[in-house]
Predict the 3D structure of the following.
Amino acid sequence: MRRRIVDTAALAILAALALAGFRTVYIGQTYLLAGLAGLALGVVAALLGRRYALPVAASTAGAVIAGLLLAGPVVLRETVRWGVLPTAATGRGIVAGVGSGWRDLLTTLPPVPDHGPLLLVPYVCGLAVGLAGTLLAGLRAPAAPLLAPAALLATTILFGTAEPAQVLLQGAGFAAVAVAWVAARQGGVVASQRTRMARWTRPLGALAVLAVAATAAYAAPVDPVRPRFVLREHVTPPFDPSQYPSPLAAFRRYEIALKDRTLFTVHGLPPGTRLRLAVMDLYDGVVWSVAGGATATTGSGVFERIGARVPGTRAGPSADLDITVRDLDGVWLPGADALHEVAFTGQRSTDLAATLRYNRSTGVAVVPAGLRSGDAYHLRARLVPPTSAPAVAGRPAAAMILPDPVNVPDEVAVAAVEWAAGATGPVAQMQALVNKLRAGAFSDGTNTAGVSVRPGHGAGRLREFLTADQLVGDAEQYAATLGLLARALGLPVRVVLGVQPPGGFTGDVTGAMVTAWVELAVDGAGWVPFDPTPPRTNKPDPPQPRQEPDGTSEVIQPPVVVAAPPEQLPAPDTGNNPPPPPPEPPPPIWLVVLLAVLRYAGPPALAIGAYAGLVAGLKWLRRRRRQRRGSPSDRMAGGWADAMDRLRDLGIAAPVRGGTRLARAAGLAAVDRAVPYAGVTAVTLAEAADEAVFGPGGPERPDIVRYWAQVDRYVHAVAASRPRLRRLTAAMNPSSLRPARSAVTHIQQRQGVRR
């Protein structure tokens, strides 16, 4: 009893020290309470299993069931009813936390809120450590239970941040408690020192202590040159912006359909401040888009989950904005550069906060759940007027690796060289390009004066834009063209879609305020914006009428229609096109249900199957070794040992008093009377084994084969008398893999020697 108290206390202290590694991940201290609650459940389940000699699988199942039932009141308190009864939201939270909480924790920028499904991660960690550590404490190896808290310590480090959480506690404190615990357990193992395991106890203990010391040393202060390895720095976030349409492609919709509609309202916006929707740095010949996947070389496509605050935000004056969504939809969240924190309000606040992703490189946030009218949020961000081009004149461009544009019209490079001729330096070149573009005409397609102005910024549209007699377009064409012109000169630029409220702004952002501009990366100044769109007062010139020769009658010309470029024309219809294939039928409902069951029940079933296969494989190897190795007498004795081990797995422990085979067989007399007649009893098996070992001569091979067959027949008869559940779990029961208590141990325990 005293040893169990010491083991439980030491395990609790080490687990608490290891859980402290989550301090830099979560915003409060609730994570520690959740982890300790899970630890208590695991310890209680393991102690009950050891008290009633239950299989490891039964103890594990009990711990899992108890953990699921108490996850609502302990962790997901906002989802339970009356503080105890779980609801459907509790079940969804458990599935989300246990299934994808580990991934979400790595892809969320710390600090993470101390509520919701992500709090299940320390809860599950504590449950696993409490169960594994208490079960391992029943083994003879003194350092065995130390493996559980050491694994938890490594987990908190890997799932933590590059900044250590508790250097002194996780380093020196953990190592000191671990060494003291191993030393106390080493001194308590008296009876097992004469067993075969004795020669492995000290080396294994030394290796475990060294492993703990190495792990604790890893929690030391971070080297500024070589930061320590954490998983969140090497994971690919699940949000892929390339799966969503280009934000710039919807520009004409904001400009015409939503021109007078309120997209969202914002309060607290300083005058002259821009709000950004999306930043695009990849051109594929069709649209400017956000680089995603392997093309996100500068991190523009890396959107991370954020918690209550955004770490690493630049210092400076900040402003508080309250934004309410009206007619704006999509996944792009209006915001500002250098976001500090964001908090959603309203009915969908939980769903929006769970899917919020933020890009620290571009200052753009997205909500894959989608925006709806009535969604509201509060954000705090660093809002300062952008740096003007004259203020950074003469500075070089910043070193930046951006994805190369593809399928760019040849006219772009020609125009870039011609328009920027004579300009020195990246800022001067950008200003020359902007001056040339701003001399063009503005048209959103409604004031064309007889000139056709189509939306879009594909390669064909921009070729038409550059080769026309006059530059005519809106912010979509001008910004897209400036981005390609600058890239043709080797300048690091990106295209930004955002909002620039005019003077007298009242708080209602309409579609007419949406615009696009280009930003240049300047060394020491960050991203400097350039506005290439000409004023709306620059009207396009009407087309000149064709001059007819004298003496001819006036001919009414048809309206001018600008033909689409060849690459944008549809393929001619030959009349022989095959009919479109029919839509694929939806998968049957049984397949959908089967895939859902496999998704959530597959990993636990696979883990249980792997454990059962490992135990069964070890028993098979042991049986094969007993049958084929050693002298004939040893193989006969191995048959007796195999019978006793299989009885132990069935929950039948033969007495060890006296230590002889006949003495143990006599203790099984009651078992023999309760089983059906098998033609053999434990006494006959013991007598045959003693005769083979101590009798004259030795057994022949047929005798050995016949003896092992009798062993199998006897064990099968005994198993038939046991409950069905016991028979099914006997194959996974690892009891026989642990050394049985010897007669010496039994006598020493009776004399008061503590193990």
